[in-house]
Amino acid sequence: TPGPIPCSRYEMCPVCVTQHMSEKFYNLSCAHMFCKDCWIMHFEVQIKQGISTAISCMAKDCEVLAPEDFVLKHLIKPNLREKYQQFTFQDHVKSHPQLRFCPGPNCQVIIRSQEPKAKRAVCSQCRTIFCFKCGMDYHAPTDCQIIKKWLTKCADDSETANYISAHTKDCPKCHICIEKNGGCNHMQCYHCKHDFCWMCLGDWKSHGSEYYECSRYKENPNIAHESVHAQAREALKKYLHYYERWENHSKSLKLEAETLEKLRLKINQKVMANLGTWIDWQYLFVAANLLAKCRYTLQYTYPYAYFMEPGPRKELFEYQQAQLEAEIENLSWKIERAETTDRGDLENQMDIAEKRRTTLLKDFLDV
Questions:
Q1: Residues 299, 250: Cα–Cα separation, whole Å
Q2: pLDDT tens digits, residue range 117-174?
Q3: What architecture (CATH level 2) is domain 10-93?
Q4: pLDDT digits (tens, 9 = 90+) for 110-129
Q5: Region for 193 from its dihedrals, namely left if φ exceeds 0, alpha if ψ lies in -120 to 50, beta otherwise
Q6: Are strands 120-122 and 110-112 parallel, antiparallel or unpaired?
Q7: For a FRET experiment, which of 59, 160, 274, 293 has its CA 20 to 30 Å from that of 241?
């Protein structure tokens, strides 16, 4: 047990190079002795740097850690004692496989899970949704390691992809400038009424629910035989394909949140005009929430697909991804035109979209 070491009446402290009475010397289990004042100073400096359970002996190359009771015995200032106990508690939570602090802003709630794996966690206090394993935004079907690689790559290549962030494109038929002000990728030119896809600018008629072709990246089968520069261009082209769709769905989620607020105002007006009750119009909010859930899942399929190796499994994944994308766009189109959409038609579309989403997760979510 750490405590005073019986020795000669006076000893020289190797840190402050000052002689002290033997009663003022303390040691850890390694038996390296230092005076009480140096221990106090050592602990204060370490705690101010945010270190608690990792405070070690002052001797060179000694890795023996200071026990909590030993540290507390040498902390005189109440604020440092409180800070140290706070840090040790945080270290305990962070090192415990079944515990995690909620990553929500200014939230100190601790979440516990019997199974310490990548799964959706929701804070009961601030309602933050996150992955229990890594603490980042929930990212199914992509696993924690892949999403970390993807976000690092996005941050590194953000300047290269900046041109994608524009909200306007030209209509492929009449070439008039169009702004995307909703989440749906099914666009209709306000000038010539041409229906086209925001992502690939192709005719929307070719984007049937059977196969949503533009979500899939077509690899160059001969790229291995091309020059280094050609391979670099192909790698960038592939990355931009997936990044553009990842970013587009992120923006669509924000735009659809704005659409929901507009919908809320319209419904309020209808209720005030005695055109039904809030309960009568509740299905629209259910549809909007389901759309957000489906689009969120779809957004995270793109990092997953980017890092997948070519083969039958990737082809199956892209097929299911394309089906989900098509049904989501159909659902988004109907919600944005809720006033003219038949309720039964909308609820049927909700059912189809959710089945596509759950099937994809069931087949490809690694648990």
A1: 7
A2: 888 899 989 999 999 998 899 999 999 999 999 988 887 765 555 544 455 677 888 8
A3: 2-Layer Sandwich (3.30)
A4: 999 888 788 889 998 999 99
A5: left
A6: unpaired
A7: 293
CB neighbours of residue 66 within 10 Å:
23
Domain extents for the chain? 10-93, 96-131, 147-364
pLDDT band for 95, please (50, 70, 90 cuts): confident
The verdict on whether 184 is a catalytic residue reads yes
Rounded Cα gap, residues 353 and 361, in angstroms: 13
pTM for this entry: 0.68
CATH class of 147-364: mainly alpha
Instruction: Say if residues 49 and 84 touch (Cβ distance below 8 Å).
Output: no
Amino acid at 353: A
Q: Which two tokens stand for residue 333?
A: 């189109």
Interacting residues of 281 by C-beta distance below 8 A, sequence separation 6+: 267, 270, 271
Are the beta carbons of 285 and 261 closer than 8 angstroms?
A: no
Name the CA radius of gyration of the chain, rounded.
30
Torsion angle, alpha carbons of 76, 77, 78, 83, to 10: -110
Q: Which residue has the tokens 């941050």?
A: 155
Q: Where are the alpha helices (DSSP H) in the chain?
A: 36-48, 68-74, 78-95, 144-156, 228-272, 282-299, 301-306, 312-336, 343-364
Spatial separation of the C-alpha atoms in residues 333 and 190, rounded to whole Å: 15
Q: Say if residue 2's pLDDT is above 80.
A: no
Cβ(72)–Cβ(81) under 8 Å? Answer: yes
Q: CA–CA distance from 219 to each of 210, 240, 309, 318 (Å)?
A: 21, 13, 11, 13
DSSP 12: E
Torsion of the alpha carbons at 325, 330, 334 and 336, rounded to the nearest 10: 40
Exactly one of 131, 171, 184, 214 is catalytic; which is it?
A: 184
Residues whose CB falls within 8 Å of the CB of residue 292, separated by 6 or more in sequence, listed in order: 253, 256, 257
DSSP calls for 326-360: HHHHHHHHHHHTGGGS-HHHHHHHHHHHHHHHHHH
Is residue 38 within 8 Å of residue 16, measured between CB atoms? Answer: yes
Contact 346, 321 (CB under 8 A): no
